[in-house]
Amino acid sequence: MNTLGETADETADVVRLVDLKRHFGPTPALDGISLNVRKGEVLGIIGRSGAGKSTLIRCLNGLERPDSGKIMIEGRDITGLSERQLQPLRRRIGMIFQHFNLLSAKTVEDNVALPLKIEGLGKAERRKRAHDLLDLVGLADKAKAYPASLSGGQKQRVGIARALAARPALLLSDEATSALDPETTRSILTLLKDINRQLGLTILMITHEMEVIRTIGDRVAVLDAGKIVEEGPVWSVFANPQTAIAQSLLASTRPQLPDHITAKLRPEPKGEMVLRIDMAGPPAQQPLFADLAAAVPHSFRLIHGGIDHVQDQPVASFFIGLNGDDASRVAVLEFLRTRSARVEVLGHVANDV
Fold it and tell me: How far apart are alpha carbons 220 and 43 in whole angstroms?
């Protein structure tokens, strides 16, 4: 049973943003954001510094007021609410931070129970809820410890437990793993995914770490200059980013042509033509190169690449070199397009590379 509290419509969007705008002077921080976050979904928001990510998350938790547009949380428009009216709604929104934001003078148990104390719950109920949550995040034995004695990963687990204390419908994560080492980051992401599955909790993650979204995200939205420029299932966007900004942000997660070959690429049509081939889903599982070799013999060589999996979907990126005459090259390109491949001509290199 979901212990977080349930809405009347289990299929309703937990968050719906409609044409959200926020300016600071003449600069648009948010420039017409429209976005839905479904119940139980993990949505990642990625973008460069200054793209509007922090402003967006501050609008969602009511710390920033938009200039126009709507913010619907569980079907209720919060944009016109007073500070007093926002207070009970904020309990439906949990928040985890990059630098943990724990109170050093309070024990782990008291940090977790603090939102419940503010809410007015009795001590016994607060303590039970805190212990249950510390058990959930694997820190039941640290209840009486103080934050100074904890590692960074343990502090973030306490932060997650505290964010869950009031049984929120939505968990906001603002760069929650960027202060952690890679091993600790993996453990925190595993914990968040487990919580998402066990509790059906909706999570919206702001991050510049692409591996975070790749690991636990269901859907990703790319933010640039206050606009959402690309959006879709994580596997689809990671396999075939459509915009220049998405391609740049995701470059570290996708195979790239080796530097020593990239340095020799030339635009002039002389020598070997180098192609990038991207495929995802069922087409990536087909015997591409065996079939290509049969269809157009002696026409190509494999330079680099391979098949990965994102959200259990195969995602393939390959780099091949084409030799032969123009007719064979055209035949190869036509064959690749019949396989739902995205093909990009990167340039040409001398035949001895």
Answer: 6
pLDDT at 273: 94
User: How far is the C-alpha of 224 from the C-alpha of 53, rounded, in Å?
Assistant: 9
Q: Is 200 left (phi over 0), alpha (psi -120 to 50) or beta?
A: left
Alpha-carbon span 270 to 29, nearest angstrom: 46
pLDDT, tens only, 157-215: 999 999 999 999 999 998 888 888 999 999 999 999 999 998 899 999 998 888 889 98
In Å, what is the CA distance from 16 to each residue of 8, 39, 96, 159, 220?
16, 11, 21, 26, 15
| Coil vs helix vs strand at 302 | strand
Q: What is the residue whose two structure tokens read 């487990």?
A: 194
Cα(92)–Cα(87) distance, rounded to whole angstroms?
9
> Nearest-CA neighbor of 261 among 324, 347, 336?
347
Residue 237 dihedral angles phi and psi, to the nearest 5°: -70, -40
Q: What is the pLDDT of residues 9-21, one digit of tens each?
A: 545 799 999 999 9
Q: How far apart are the first and last CA of the chain?
A: 61
Q: How many Cα atoms sit within 13 Å of 112 on the Cβ side?
A: 33
Q: How many CB atoms lie within 10 A of CB 263?
A: 10
Cβ neighbourhood burial of 105 (10 Å; 0-12, 13-18, 19+): exposed
Q: In degrees, to the nearest 5, what angle opens at C-alpha 58 toward C-alphas 55 and 70? A: 85
Residue of 41, 45, 53 whose CA lies nearest to 15: 41
Q: Which are the contacts of 25, defined by CB distance < 8 A and separation ≥ 6?
A: none
Length of the chain counted residue by residue: 353
